[in-house]
Amino acid sequence: MAVSPPSQRLSLPVALSFASTALPIAAIGLVMGVYLPRFFAGHLGLSMVAVGAAITIVRLLDLAVDPLLGMAMDRTTSRWGRYRPWLVVGAPLVMASVYMLFMADTGVSEGFVIGWLLVLYLGISIVTLAQAAWGAALATDYNDRSRVYGVISAVGVIGAVLILVVQLAVKGSFADSVHAMGWFCIVLLPITVTLCIWISPERVAPKTTGEHASFSDYWKLITRPEMMRLILADFVMALGPGTTAALYLFFFHDARGYTGPQTSILLMFYIAAGLAGAIFWSWLAQKMGKHRTLMLTSVCYAFTQSALMIIPKATMALAIPGMFAVGFVSSAFVLIVRAMVADVADEVRLETGEERAGLLYALVTTTQKIGGAITVGISFTVLGMVGYNASEGAVNTPEAIRGLELCYVFAPIILVFVGGACFIGWKLDAARHGEVRRQLDLRDALAAEAGVLATNSGVSLPDAKA
Questions:
Q1: Closest C-alpha among 242, 270, 227 to residue 426
Q2: What does each C-alpha distance from 406 to 89, 93, 321, 420 come to in angstroms?
Q3: Please, where are the H alpha helices in 251-331?
Q4: How far is 311 from 309, CA to CA, in rounded Å?
Q5: Domain contains 271
Q6: Distances from the Cα of 393 to the Cαs of 255, 389, 396, in angstroms?
Q7: Cβ-contact 38, 254 below 8 angstroms
Q8: Other beta carbons less than 10 A from residue 128's beta carbon
């Protein structure tokens, strides 16, 4: 398979093939965040507290998984590459757990849900972490990273839109639509993983030391000022919109008076806006810098999210552009943070001589899991405390509806503002990263020449850090 030279701009076909696995993973994530909580509470008969507790328990148990996976990926060597084998391992886990959860019927226990959610999160962690770390090695240029992670985000949006089309096309019950969405993901995942590993090149950076990092070395990575900022920003920027995902159906159906099909249509516009948003924000990040773009989007998010309360109830003509605006803005958060982590990974490799992209991406994906655990657990608990009833056909009090509105609209704004503030005074901009890449490319070229010399003459040159 081909090897891409340093700092080469990836062609669009290669970028699309690499990003293809984001399509089913994003579809699964949408169903998990929006439809599965209601499926568990409404169809399977689990209580709101039980559903919130199950998801919280799983995500708390899952917290240690990503750093361990990151360490393992950073140390992986095979003739297939560093990240391809992990995609092959993760895909079957996702497929099996999607089948067990999405096809579940009444009578399953909370333990059943917890067990298969653990398998599902493990599989998704493997696939998403392998792709994110692979992307850091695949796109080495500061601006091309914004473009490539923008393509990944755009492909994920397409997957989310397609799963909504599947949901709308099913004329049966709510459970029937969840079953259909499950089969869609199960069929699509192996196709996209095969496309990714067959077409995408993988360039493994040469090592300048032969040592494995200790836990103290990993702690130094976590406490780097840049990573601490990115971890906090990723946490709160995932926590904010994550709150809205779990409460979306309840908010728009019960609080704002939209029908089931209308809520799906609104969600489709929200998701579809991410396609335009991914293209726009990745372009803007190349023009004004990634950190400045994130600060701008945090302010824009506050305006668009607040506007949802101004829109009159059950008014599709105004709700559609409102949801499109929120989706357009919030699409910037994940893709730009992921691109910035790749920049930090380059700086770390320059200083240490070791690849740590897997672990660094594990740190930010772990923050998203913490955020997910907090949002579902706390939101569902608060709704239960104010007397909100999630059962189909239930009639809720005005106080319960008001609590639902406050949780959905205003809590995310504060969190996203904190995330934008994390990038005030950010130093690793395009100029600094360009110098880092120049030194890395020079050192990698020297390492390659030393390898050729050792092979042809038997003379080995000592390792050196640039």
A1: 227
A2: 42, 37, 21, 22
A3: 260-288, 290-307, 316-330
A4: 6
A5: yes
A6: 14, 9, 10
A7: no
A8: 23
Residue 39: give the domain boundaries.
Answer: 12-203+221-451
pLDDT digits (tens, 9 = 90+) for 45-64: 776 677 777 777 777 777 77
Q: What is the residue-wise DSSP string for 115-155?
A: HHHHHHHHHHHHHHHHHHHHHHHH--SHHHHHHHHHHHHHH
User: Domain tally for the chain?
Assistant: 1
Distance CA(185)–CA(192), nearest Å, equals 10
Closest CA to 344 of 147, 154, 145, 210: 145
Closest CA to 373 of 113, 38, 53: 53
Query: Would you state the structure tokens that stand for residue 452, as one six-digit string?
Result: 């050729």
User: In terms of C-beta density within 10 A (0-12 exposed, 13-18 middle, 19 or more buried), how is residue 225 classed?
Assistant: exposed
pLDDT tens per residue, range 314-345: 899 999 999 999 999 998 998 898 889 889 98
CA torsion 255-258-261-262 (nearest 10°) is -120
Work out whether the CA dihedral 134, 138, 143, 144 comes out positive or negative. Answer: negative
Is the whole-model pTM more than 0.85?
A: no
How far is the C-alpha of 255 from the C-alpha of 269, rounded, in Å? 19
pLDDT in tens, 121-178: 899 989 988 888 888 778 778 788 888 888 888 898 899 889 988 988 888 888 889 9
- Amino acid residing at 82: R
What tokens were used for 358?
């897997």
Residue whose token pair is 């099909």: 261
Cα–Cα distances (Å) from 453 to 240, 353, 462, in that order, read: 54, 20, 12
Alpha carbon distance 25, 32 (integer Å): 10
Asked if residue 415 is part of any domain, the answer here is yes
Let me know if residue 408 belongs to a domain: yes
CATH number at residue 380: 1.20.1250.20
Rounded distance between C-alpha atoms, residue 51 and residue 175, angstroms: 16
